[in-house]
Amino acid sequence: MSWKNVVVIPCHNEEVSIREVIADVRRHSPTSDILVVDNASTDQTAERARSVGARVVHCPFKGKGRALKFGFSKVQADSYTIVDGDSTYDLSRLEEMIQAVKNGTSMCVGERKSQEDKAYPPFHRFGNWLFTLLLSVLFGREMKDVLSGLRVFSREFVEGSPIQVKGFEVEAFYSLEAAIRDLDVKEFSIKYFARPEGGQSKLRSFRDGFKILFCVLGMFRLYRPLHFYGMFSGICFFLGTLSGFQPILEFVQDGYVYAVPRAILAASLMNLCLMFFGIGAMLDAQMKLHLRQLESRLFQNRKSMEAPSFEASNSNSSAA
What we know:
It is built from 10 helices and 7 strands. It is α/β, with parallel strands linked by helices. Helix 1 links the parallel strand 1 and strand 2 (33-39).
């Protein structure tokens, strides 16, 4: 059975570059299907995509995460590719990335390489470095380009990682999902270009940077609750010990506590310490159970999809 890859291109006002992106996909992966998601564009993006034979669907709600979620709901494939419609990504290694997913990799990422400040401004480089560091520290996963917009996913990865974000946080979301589920990820070095003349970036460095930061911290709280609440537990333990040192010393020396307010504060902080630790432990157990159930469900779905072909092959061999 032939492998089906669908390239999903989310676009908001990309009339300048969309035809070039479609041509690049066809040049480097001629067997892939193309789906352009017109994300509430007010220009000729949809018309220009249709003029070169691409399938176009309209997502009325702005936001890259929303556009990708809408696009994935419209197609079924063995692997899914996402790429921006601004013609900044070199697609010459796209077939290599698709082949890696065929061979069992869950997600392939295009690691951007550019010497042009116009293409990859220093502030964006710093942001990528910062979020890469956070991914390593908080989730124990090493990646070089957490925010790349060129990715190829397996079907199981997409089905097991329904998009929970609305905007440009979606790349960070997928990087975190791979780290949380301990999935195989490969990065491929690619060239990264400046936008064509007339194109305009929709990314707002500070606004979208904070959204990505909140996404990372939110997923850390959700998927690593013992670590998240454990930090607060540790802080309360430290402050409680500091506050309670004098009352304990007074009781040992004099048999009486003079610093009563500090003793009450220390006891309260220790109660908070135990409370945070208990919350983290309970949520951690629930999250591990949820992840086990998710993997089990995906495994069963994979077996059910493979079973008919197996039975068919047996019946054919018996008939022979």
